[in-house]
Amino acid sequence: MSDTPVKQQSTAAFYGQAVASFAVALAATAVGIFQLDADPWVRGFLGIAVLYLVTSAFTLAKVIRDRQEAGQIVSRVDQARLEKLLAEHDPFEKL
User: Fold this and answer.
1) What are the phi and psi torsion angles at 94 (to 5°)?
2) DSSP E strands: which ranges in the chain?
3) pTM over 0.70
4) Largest CA distance in the chain
5) For the chain, first and last CA: distance in Å?
6) Long-range contacts made by residues 58-66, C-beta under 8 angstroms, separation at least 24?
């Protein structure tokens, strides 16, 4: 049976770029809402909407990742079962 672990790790540069991109986008949106020539309640509504979009995006990304990881686990279990059956099978055994 194969005991090779599934290792999918991004580089530090990719992680840093993703964090920096998120921070810049969130800061630019916050500045844009703050500088908007509108009533405070409109700016507050837009701020809450942005925060809700951010939390929804994080939740969606987590759900997608969890579903992908669950699929990999099921695939590895099926592969292990198949390898066990093949290892136990003797093609020269008399039926």
Assistant:
1) -75, 130
2) none
3) no
4) 86
5) 26
6) none
Report the alpha-carbon distance of residue 39 to residue 24 in Å, rounded: 25
Cβ neighbours of 82 (radius 10 Å): 11
pLDDT single digits (tens) 61-87: 999 888 888 777 767 777 777 788 778
SS3 for 9? coil
Q: How many CA atoms lie within 13 A of 89 on its CB side?
A: 7
Q: Which residue's structure tokens are 């920096």?
A: 20
Total residues found in the chain within this entry: 95
Residue 90 carries which DSSP code? Answer: -
Q: What is the pLDDT of residues 37-46, one digit of tens each?
A: 999 999 999 9
Q: What is the DSSP string of 3-25?
A: ---------HHHHHHHHHHHHHH
